[in-house]
Design goal:
The structure is a single chain. The chain is of the alpha+beta class. It folds into 5 domains: 164 residues, no CATH class; 125 residues, Beta-Lactamase (2-Layer Sandwich); 84 residues, 2-Layer Sandwich (Beta-Lactamase); 70 residues; 157 residues, Heat Shock Protein 90 (2-Layer Sandwich), CATH 3.30.565. Strands 2-1-5-4-3 form a 5-stranded antiparallel sheet, with helices on both faces. It has a 5-stranded antiparallel sheet with strand order 7-6-10-9-8. A hairpin with a 3-residue loop joins strand 14 and strand 15. The two termini are 76 Å apart. The N terminus and C terminus are likely disordered.
Length: 740
């Protein structure tokens, strides 16, 4: 299982344990090596080459691993501080690669060098090499010692002979001198002399054979040498570079001493001394053999670690050099991601892969900047066009909806949302969910149509036009509900005017004729015959009904222009309620109002007519119910800072099914109704800038509400004799309609 198969926390924990293990080995292996070296019985003996090589490898491997781990740490920190961030995978891989490339050959070379050196040195520290050197020195020493012994032997023999000469002749005689010279010559001695040494006095030469004519021969006899002879030494050897001298006692009583020397080849002495130095150095080397062995291997260890450390440093330097342009690319890419398309990387000097990538990146960002600039300019132009279109769409009263090919809403203006009663965002929603009637039009071939819809519980009539574009159809529609009502009202008003004119003219002669018949012929009819009276009364009564109907037609057709004054709304309501309360004692009438009672700017006669019609309809609805339940008619007057409302509630039969058409002219649910009462009320309400609304009363019955906007009333009243305007040209721009 590799580290990549672990999760990030497990991998980090494993690396941490590896680091702790390597540190422990770096500490433990040197201690174990020291213990192995120190426990040996003889510290001067060499350790076996395999053991030393094994200890070298055991110390080298943890050291190399520690260097690699330290390099890994440094690489990760450098990578974290670089623009690339992350865990420095490239740094770590390069450190591992360079370390392996340096460590593996170094390890084999170290092992080979250690074994080669130790096996090569092992002979020189062996007993055979030591025997050769010691024997060579011993031979040279024996040669030298043989020469010393010969000089000693010849000098002693010559001393004895010279002592015999002194018994025969004195030392100053010629015979003694010749005998002395013969002794020196025969015994193959090179020089000789007899000196007298007195305490406190320098040595005094008595006789000498000096063929080499040396001037410092007397200086060879020193008090130290004489002291040795006096201490009992038979002879004292005086070694020189090219000769061997011997000093011995000649005559103890006279204090004389005999010196003799023999000259030999100077190379013998030099070789002897050289052999002494070599043997001394070799013995010193033998004593330091283990130390030198360990020092050499320690040097190999340090050099190997230095090589691996240098490889790690080179790996870090190479990784930094390789990652630097990549980091610049990453930083530039992040700047581009954040919207800075002017970001570029430095142009590389070398034409390698990184340089090619940098040049391609700069070319790409240059193209992106140019294309983005063009897109931004085009987007600004589109945005300005969109803003213009939205401003135009939000300013028009017509509804506009843009539909995609899947019949989902792409764009909708405020007028369309208001006409369709859409709440919230409609973009993206299916058209069928907003208005099934409009969605059904898209299935046909018609480009224009009039559609009846119900939005927010209110029926509307829309004039729809459909335009087809590449992105999808575009629907535009206007609310012509009020227009159709106005046209219908105008048509009915013309009909009412014609009916009133055609019917009203013959009504008066008919009524007069019937009344004359009653007066002239009523007395001639027998008292028990009531047929004539009933017939004439029926004619007069029906003519009265027709006259009232004609009056309503005339009122609807020719409603006079309202005259606005500030009126006490409570007085108008009380008069209306009083007339019906007297006529219908079986119904409970209630009048509710705010304190203080509202004052309304209105036409008193027209508003009273509207309230009268509402109360009359309410009374008829209560009487039509016919059961023994609650009979209640309640009028409520209310005022807010912006509006005045008048509500008439009854406990009658309630609203009909076609409640949306009850304000249309000639629309009635009663047998004797004309269908003009509510139409007149609606017209009066609209003339006062208000609206009429219908609702079901809790517990049964109907609630009719008239709502008037104070601001609209003030605008409508402006220009009347009681309410002059400050600006003669000012006119109300529109009528505000309230619906509940």
């Amino acid at each position: 299982m590799t580290l990549a198969e672990f999760g990030a926390p497990q991998a980090r924990a494993l690396i941490r344990w590896i680091e702790l293990g390597v540190i422990a080995l770096v500490v433990a292996v040197p201690l174990a090596s020291w213990w192995i070296i120190a426990r040996g019985p003889d510290s001067a003996l060499l350790l076996t080459p395999p053991l030393v090589a094994l200890m070298l490898v055991a110390n080298l491997l943890p050291g190399m691993a520690l260097l690699v781990l330290v390099g890994r740490r440094i690489a990760m920190r450098r990578a974290a501080a670089s623009p690339i961030g992350g865990e420095g995978r490239l740094h770590v891989r390069l450190v591992a690669l360079f370390s392996a490339v340096a460590a593996v050959p170094t390890l084999f070379v170290v092992i080979f060098a250690s074994l080669l050196f130790q096996y090569g040195v092992e002979f020189w520290f062996s007993d055979r090499a030591r025997g050769v050197l010691e024997n060579s020195y011993a031979i040279a020493r024996e040669v030298y010692q043989a020469e010393v012994d010969r000089v000693t032997r010849e000098t002693r023999t010559m001393r004895d002979d010279l002592r015999g000469y002194l018994r025969l002749v004195p030392m100053e005689s010629r015979a003694f001198q010749e005998g002395y010279a013969v002794q020196v010559l025969k015994r193959e001695l090179s020089e000789s002399m007899i000196v007298q040494f007195t305490a406190g006095q320098p040595a005094r030469r008595l006789i000498m054979v000096n063929p080499y004519e040396r001037n410092d021969i007397e200086r060879l006899v020193t008090p130290e040498l004489v002291a040795k002879l006096r201490a009992g030494a038979p002879a004292v050897v005086i070694p020189e570079r090219d000769r061997i001298g011997l000093l011995t006692v000649f005559d103890p009583r006279a204090g004389t001493y005999l010196y003799a020397a023999r000259v030999f080849d100077p190379q013998i002495n030099a070789q002897l001394r050289r052999g002494e130095r070599v043997l001394s150095d070799y013995r010193t080397l033998i004593d330091r053999s283990r130390s030198l062995q360990l020092q050499f291997n320690a040097a190999l260890l340090l050099i190997s670690l230095l090589i691996v450390g240098l490889a790690v440093w080179v790996a870090l330097a190479v990784a930094d050099r390789l990652v630097r342009p990549v980091g610049e690319l990453v930083a530039a890419a992040r700047a581009v991601a954040e919207g800075d398309l002017s970001a570029r990387v430095a142009q590389p000097r070398r034409r390698d892969e990184i340089g090619t990538l940098a040049r391609a990146f700069n070319a790409m960002t240059g193209q992106l900047e140019a294309q983005t600039g063009a897109l931004v300019a085009a987007n600004d132009q589109l945005e300005s066009r969109r803003a213009l279109i939205e401003a135009v769409m939000s300013g028009v009263s017509a509804g506009v909806i843009s539909i995609d090919r899947d019949r989902a809403v792409r764009l909708i203006n405020d007028s369309a949302a208001a006409l369709l009663g859409v709440r919230g965002s409609a973009v993206g929603r299916p058209l069928a969910a907003l208005s099934p009637e409009l969605d059904a039009l898209l299935g046909g071939d018609a480009r224009e149509a009039v559609v009846q819809i119900v939005a927010g519980g209110e029926a509307r009539t829309l004039a729809v036009k459909i335009a087809f574009a590449d992105a999808g159809p575009i629907l535009t529609f206007d609310d012509i509900t009020q227009q159709l009502l106005d046209q219908r009202r105008a048509a009915w008003a013309d009909v009412a005017r014609r009916i009133a004119h055609e019917i009203k003219n013959p009504l008066t002669p008919i009524q007069l004729a019937a009344e004359r018949l009653q007066r002239r012929y009523g007395k001639n009819v027998p008292a028990d015959d009531g047929t004539f009276a009933r017939l004439t009364e029926t004619i007069v009564r029906q003519v009265g009904d027709l006259r009232r109907m004609v009056d309503e037609f005339s009122s609807f057709a020719r409603m006079p222009k309202p005259v606005f004054r500030d009126e006490a709304l409570l007085d108008i309501a009380r008069q209306v309620m009083f007339l019906h309360e007297v006529a219908h004692a079986g119904i409970a009438f209630r009048l509710n109002h705010d304190e203080p009672p509202p004052v309304m700017r209105c036409d008193r006669r027209q508003l009273g007519q509207a309230l009268t019609n509402l109360v009359k309809n309410a009374v008829e609805a209560i009487e039509s119910k016919g059961d023994g339940g609650e009979k209640l008619l309640e009028m409520t007057l209310a005022e807010t800072p912006t509006a005045i409302t008048i509500s008439v509630a009854d406990s009658g039969v309630g609203l009909p099914i076609e409640r949306d058409r009850i304000v249309e002219p000639y629309m009635t649910t009663r047998a004797r109704g004309t269908g003009l009462g509510l139409a007149i009320v609606k017209k009066i309400a609209e003339e006062h800038g208000g609206a009429i609304a219908f609702a079901d009363r809790p517990g049964g019955g109907t609630i009719v509400t008239l709502a008037f906007d104070k601001a609209a009333l003030a605008a409508l009243a402006c220009g009347t004799p009681d309410q002059p305007c400050g600006d003669d040209d000012a006119r109300p721009a529109m009528l505000t309609r309230f619906r509940k």
